Amino acid sequence: MLQGTLTQLVLASCNGSATLRNLGGLASVILLIFALLYRVLCIPVAPSPQKDHSPPRLQLPSWKVTRFFFEKRFDFIKDGFRATSSSIYQTRLFQHAAIVLSGDEGRQVFFKEKGLCLYDTFSIMMGSSAAQFDPHQVGGVVKRMASIQRPDNLQKLIPLILSECQRKMGTWGRERILDPCSSLHEVAFHLVMAIASFDIANDAALSARLKSLVDTVDSITNPYSTWFPWLPGPALFQKFFASMQIYWIIQAAIRTRKRSGIKRDDMLQQMIDEGDGTIRIFGCMLGLSLAGARATGTIVTWLIMHLSSDPTWSLNVQEEIKTFISTHTSSSSPLSGNALIQALSEIPLTAWESQTPNLDFCIRETLRTSQPYTAVRKNTGPDLTIGAYVIPSGSLVVYPFLDTALDPKYYSEPTRWDPSRVLKKDTPFIGWGAGTHACKGQRLATLSMKLMVAYAFTQFDITMVDREGKKINRVPVPEWNDPATCRPKEECGIKFAEK
Ligand code: HEM
């Protein structure tokens, strides 16, 4: 999910600006640091909204706003609506005027208006002048993601994804209690790495190091120091140096591949063959890890947690998978290990995409309830109006997805996970975003999650347990203030016991 501020840095890195293209490796990175410092210290302050049509102002100092935005985003945004008694309010975020939207009109304007630009927020959120975005350049990353998801490519990825599931889940032994914040995220990361680079995925130590660097880049920490909002805090430098190390890993992988003369069937090979430069390959690899792996890890974790504790849906989905496998394979007895991987791999992509309706309902409901994503855009002009209010050109515009997802007008008892919800035609669903910036990895993400669930539920009995390891028959509430992993509010584990 393009849902970490650092995804932005990644895409920024691959905008292929003249400066970056001309400078190589380390030199460009050092230049970036200076550029970044210059940008942070000289960041322009957007004009304040016109007084007469301004939305009500949230009375909170801007350093507190920035801090709460990183530490308690969901509560902060919700409390803001309450404190201003308004569905739209203004505040200051990253030294910019920021307008926070909610409600139907707010959502429609947010996703429809062409002037609201995602890429222009990158430099502001990151404090980096390296991210002066040209959306057409970012198109390179999006184009690459489209090519990974061509049906012939996706079909080829099925055995690869399943083998990675087998490899990672095989290390859990006969019984394992998994941490909901990390274990399935690791599997998702390795799936993504296997798609991106054969060599990195096959080097356990390297890929573990890469995961830890990506986690640093992706951590939701405030990049600005709290006491001096114009000063970059240590987190910014940590993230920056982690990105540099990732860059070097990718650079080495490119060099090794070219020198070896061995062709592999992965994204790295495709990009080398098409003459993409190191910066763009780095951007795509990191973009895939940040935009794809984390979101897939979070959603599949909650999906498995819900399925393991909801007897009706657990049965529906497990029966569906059994019937699905027996319809498409010749074997009449239950399969496991390599035979299972082989059988599942031979099922056509079109069947995976169209013949598991119960699993589709469960994925949709999990996208709704377990994705505390807040989208930010910059209004690149002209001024916009929502009701009586003006959103001035130059301001940031903030929209929390949970405003739609938890709206009782559309979803009765909104916090209840209920895949059987019958949605009326006009019910808004923004689990994959909407408009110009809707998710570009939806097909790959859905397929990966289906394969993980099919493999996991065929191989293991899965139950939710409390901190003492005792079975519980419910799923804890998600911590919506944690946009990174959306961890459960209570300590709990997911128990995988081999069948
Ligand atoms: C379950 C997993 C995923 C979820 C829930 C998810 C969700 C989203 C959402 C909500 C957005 C819109 C962001 C916004 O409006 O600000 C988005 C954008 C995006 N996603 Fe995903 N995503 C997932 C997986 C992936 C994967 C696997 C990839 C890569 C193959 C990917 C690539 C992207 C890209 C490139 C964008 C930005 C599109 C643009 O700016 O035009 N996502 N995603």
UniProtKB/TrEMBL annotation:
Keyword Lipid biosynthesis: no
InterPro entries: Cyt_P450, Cyt_P450_B, Cyt_P450_sf
UniProt key word Oxidoreductase: yes
Domain of life per record: Eukaryota
GO molecular function per UniProt: heme binding; iron ion binding; monooxygenase activity; oxidoreductase activity, acting on paired donors, with incorporation or reduction of molecular oxygen
Keyword entries, A-Z: Heme, Iron, Membrane, Metal-binding, Monooxygenase, Oxidoreductase, Transmembrane, Transmembrane helix
Residue spans crossing the bilayer: 26-47
A GO BP annotation: mycotoxin biosynthetic process
Cofactor(s) needed for function: heme
Pfam families associated with the record: p450
Family label: Belongs to the cytochrome P450 family.
Protein name as annotated: Cytochrome P450
Native species: Penicillium freii
